[in-house]
Write a structure and sequence with these properties.
Helices cover 34% and strands 19% of the residues. It has 357 residues and is an alpha/beta fold. It has a single domain (6-94, 174-356), classed as P-loop containing nucleotide triphosphate hydrolases (Rossmann fold). It is globular, with a radius of gyration of 22 Å. Bound molecules: iron/sulfur cluster (SF4).
Length: 357
């Protein structure tokens, strides 16, 4: 396969608030605004941000559970927006979702075995023997005994129910799993077991994950790269290690500062950001973070910052920490200010290396 497994380009979702004859006058909830990222096979991209930042809407857009207002979602180069119902159904075999609350996402009247094999039986008929063998195999993969296949979800613990949700997601042998707050409802010790299970499955089966979470401890443990969202927009996207070692965007810095630090030798950053996330119906002008940002300058109030490659594999949207003019004035041909991130990234890297010399 050439190119990334998942490529998201300028994904946007606006929800009209009510209905009316004059569509232009209806207020819009800007849930997701111009979000782009990609995920390689066998890798984990974590999406983080406070509640209401649009991360769960991104998950639903990826699964095409909701239709985007704009932008594209490409799986192995195929735009899923252009697929017919039948073709989309076939593609859904490749993408599965694990939800936050396993109890409400599992049919309470079906046994664990029926829940696990149901997705496969939507595509092909299985004999009783095949069904039992498949259920036993998937239960084993998620660390549960085959006896569990006769139990109802109400007879299982929270951790077992989440394992069951994962087994169900694995039944179609997907190449991508979207996990929306998949461990946040679990106790810390059970969380660790589920996270390690996901890591093992990734190693064994080469599955890619889009892992949505508000818990930075979990993200640091599981992520290859991290996308930070604020009020529907991507503000920083970076390799996981780089992001935690040196956050660049003030919002990322604040999130990391607010996260509990289990290691007493690790230095905490400055005080976390104060105030509430503004309404997505009337987002602040310019950079939406400016009412809460300690570094805000006049420009932040009027101009939305563009995502700028920093030359270390990360992109950041901030007028102060990642000023666009630092990149643009280095363009070789005057007037040819292509915003191609690759070009900008290489130019930035060239300047940094010149400065070092
Ligand atoms: Fe803060 Fe301005 Fe950067 Fe936004 S653009 S994060 S307000 S400094």
């Amino acid at each position: 396969m050439n190119g990334p497994l998942l490529k998201v380009e300028n994904l946007t979702k606006h929800y009209p608030l009510g209905s009316g004859l004059f569509k232009k006058s209806i207020p819009m909830i800007r849930a997701v605004e111009d979000v782009s990222f990609s995920v390689e096979a066998g890798e984990t991209l974590c999406i983080v941000g406070e509640s209401g930042c649009g991360k769960s809407t991104v998950a639903r857009l990826l699964m095409r559970l909701v239709e985007p207002t704009g932008g594209r979602v490409l799986i192995e180069g195929t735009d899923i927006a252009g697929l017919t119902k039948g073709a989309l159904r076939a593609w859904r075999r490749r993408m599965q979702m694990v939800f936050q609350d396993p109890y409400s996402s599992l049919n309470p009247r079906l046994t664990a075995g029926q829940i696990i094999t149901e997705p496969v039986e939507n595509f092909e008929r299985l004999s009783r023997r095949q069904r039992n063998a498949l259920a036993a195999d998937l239960l084993r993969k998620v660390g549960m005994s085959r006896e569990m296949m006769h139990r109802l979800p109400s007879e299982l613990s929270g951790g077992q129910r989440q394992r069951l949700g994962i087994a169900r997601a694995l039944s179609l042998n997907p190449s991508l799993i979207i996990a929306d707050e998949a461990v946040s409802a679990l106790d810390v010790s059970v969380q660790a077991q589920i996270l390690n299970l996901l890591l093992d499955l990734q190693q064994q089966m080469g599955i890619a994950f889009v892992f949505i979470s508000h818990d930075l401890g979990v993200v640091e443990h599981i992520g290859h790269s991290v996308a930070v969202m604020y009020l529907g927009r991507l503000v920083e996207l970076a390799p996981c290690e780089a992001l935690f070692a040196k956050p660049v965007h003030p919002y990322t810095e604040a999130l990391i500062a607010a996260a509990p630090v289990p290691d007493p030798t690790r230095v905490r950053l400055e005080a976390p950001v104060e105030g509430e996330v503004p309404s997505p119906i009337h987002p602040p002008s310019g950079c939406a973070f400016h009412p809460r940002c300690p570094l805000a300058v006049e420009r932040c109030r009027v101009e939305v910052p563009a995502l700028v490659p920093m030359g270390d594999g990360r992109v950041v949207a901030c007028h102060v920490r990642a000023p666009l003019q630092d990149i643009l004035h280095l363009m070789p041909v005057p007037g040819d200010h292509s915003l191609d991130p690759m070009v900008m990234s290489e130019t930035f890297a060239a300047r940094t290396s010149r400065e070092r010399r």
